[in-house]
Structures are given as C-alpha cells and as structure tokens.
Amino acid sequence: MKKKMAFSLIGGVIISTLALYLAFRRVPFDDLLDSLVSINYFWIIPSIAAGLTGFILRVFRWRVILESTHKIGFWHAYHPLMIGFMLNCVLPARVGELARPAILYKKDNIPFSTVLATVAAERLFDMLLLIAFFIVVLANVQIDPNLDIPFGNLHLNSKTLEAIFKSMIMISIALIAGVLLISSEKIRKIINQFVMQLPNKFFFLPSEIKEKIKNNVSIIIVKIVDNIAEGFTLVKDPKKLFLCLAYSLIIWIFNAYSWYLFSLGCPGIGLSFLEISAVMIIVCFFIGLPSVPGFWGLWEAGGVFALTLFGIAAKDAAAYTLACHVGQMFPVIIIGFISAVILGVNIWQIQYELSD
C-alpha cells in the first residue's frame, strides 16, 4: 500500500475509534446489547430495498449529467457508481469519488477530469437538496434549544447545528460560483490565456525552458480546465437541471424513507418521518467532516447526537444508529464488489493509482 494511503487509513482508524468511544462511552455495553437484541431486523429488508432504489435513481441522474458530453448505457454508469460508493465504505478520503472517473476513463475513454466534474455536480445537487431538506425539517420539527451534549472537548447543541449548516451553505455558494465561472466561455478564455502566457512572465528563463513549460504544463492545464467545463455543460440546459433536481429530491426521500422503515423495527425510537429525516441529515453533516473508512464513528456520533435531540435514550439511540449504519453500508459493499467482478476491475490497483 502506498505510504499516503497507509497514513490516511491509520489516521482514519484513529478518528473512527475516538468518535466511536465518545459516541458510546455513556452507554453500558449490556444496555447497548439489550437494545440491539430488541430490534426487529425484519424491517431491514424494506429499508435496504428503499436505499438501493435511491442508488438506482442516482444512476439515472448521473447519466443525465453525463449526457451533456457523453452518452453511456445504464450498466456502464451503474457499475462504476456502485464501485465508487463501495470504496467510500471501506477506504478513507472518499477515494470512490475518484474511482468512478478512473473506471470510465479506462472502459469508455472519457476524460478523467470531465467525469470528475460530473461527480462534483452530483455532490453539489446532493448538498443543495440536503440544505433545502434541512430547512423544511427544522421548520416542522421541534428540537430542544437548551439541550447540550458533551462530546470530548466539544459541546453538541443547537449552535453546533447552526455552525454546520452555515458551513454547508458557504461551501455550496463557493461551489456554485466556481461552476458558473468555469462554465462561462469568456471567463474560461481569460483563464486559459493567462495560463498560456504565464511562462513568458519568467523573463529570466531561456526560451527553450519557457516552451517546455508551455507544452508540458500550460497546455495540459488548459485541457483539464476545458474538460472540467465540459463536465459542467449541464448548467446551460434548464430542462436537465430541473430533471436532476427532481431526481435529487426523490433520491433523498427514498434515503430518508429507508432510515424511517428501519426505525419502525426499533422499539425505543418511535419518531415521525420528518424527525428521522432530521436525524439522517445531521448524520450526513457529520460524515461530511474529514473522511474516515466507512464513516465509522462520525456516523454514530451524529446519530446519537441527533436522536438525543428528540429525547431518545442513549442506549436506544446508539443501537439504532449502529444497526442502521451496518444495514446501509454492507449491501453497498457487497453490490459494489459484485460490480467490480463483473467489470473485471482490480479495485486494489485503482486504489494504488489514485493514491499517487
């Protein structure tokens, strides 16, 4: 394993271990075990079905985004997407987001940077829908403003949610601004001209060196910028934008419904669909922090915090969050592995290449 990946993995394991300890330290093991045993695991079947439906919808959405530059079939999009999510479940640093472009580049000869831009577009749609969903949920769900939960040196409370929410909005604004700028032909032309003329600014360099910099650096950067802009061509098509927003809305409804269905089998939960949706969103905000393998620890911390906001006992919150995490992750890992076998993709080789 490459040193960079090894250090990332070790760091991720440390973060996960610490987060798991902080999330479960107030829950006696016997109480946690009793709560886990009391869960009716029959409900995991419809929960998984709803979750996997969300992934199928993600494939359709990704194909719409890709159509602006390259048309690919359902299975050509499905397998890379599932492999990408599978890698996110087992490796740190969201390597799966880079695996998808790598696979499509090898299998369909689509430029890596173009596909990477479409993956970024997907994430932007997800972030915008999560923010919108969060606003709707908070407007209809009562959360105790005085509740304060110690988490290590931090205090998780309503102010924590506000800070995370504001950060998500700022990131979204920055991403949207970046997409609009790079999608503008005039601005892109200015950027490309600047990049091509930059070697000439180093007046002290011999002309041969300047030419080499242009050929080996500037031209490549210009090509990458153009490929990225090509991946964001979607912004110029209002119909496709609306369709992707519609897909995103349905995807997250299915995701929330998946969490809600599983909660029906957990005796100590008893929350409404909107309340469970709030729990899911808070967990998503938590796992948006520095990525660890499979989001272990951060997922549990977010889930226990969110459920405690609604008055759920710590042992029931810990049991539901842990069992839900397993139910959400392992089907994706299994299906992603099957997709890798079908495509003949060596996931470890991809990992090594992406860690360079």
Please explain how this structure is put together.
About 75% of the residues lie in helices and about 0% in strands. The radius of gyration is 22 Å and the shape is elongated. It has a two-stranded antiparallel sheet. With about 350 residues, it is mostly helical. Helix 4 crosses helix 13 (about 315-345) and helix 12 runs antiparallel to helix 13. It has one domain (about 5-355). The protein contains 14 helices and 2 strands; from the N terminus they run H-H-H-H-H-H-E-E-H-H-H-H-H-H-H-H. The model has no long low-confidence stretch (mean pLDDT about 80). The protein has helices at about 5-25, 30-40, 45-65, 75-90, 95-110, 110-140, 160-185, 185-200, 205-230, 240-265, 275-285, 300-310, 315-345, 345-355; strands at about 150, 155.
What labels describe this entry?
single chain, 356 residues, mainly alpha, two-stranded antiparallel ribbon
User: What helical percentage do the residues reach?
Assistant: over 70%
Which stretches are low in confidence, meaning pLDDT under 50 for 5 or more residues running? none
**Biggest sheet: strands, sense, closure?**
2 strands, antiparallel
**What is the domain tally?**
1
- Strand content range: under 5%
Radius of gyration: 22 Å
- Secondary structure category: mainly alpha
Overall pLDDT metric: 81
Shape: elongated
The number of helical runs is: 14
Order of helices and strands: HHHHHHEEHHHHHHHH
Oligomeric assembly: single chain
* Order of strands across the main sheet: 1-2
Distance between the first and last residues' Cα: 11 Å
Per DSSP E runs of 2 or more residues, the count of β-strands stands at: 2
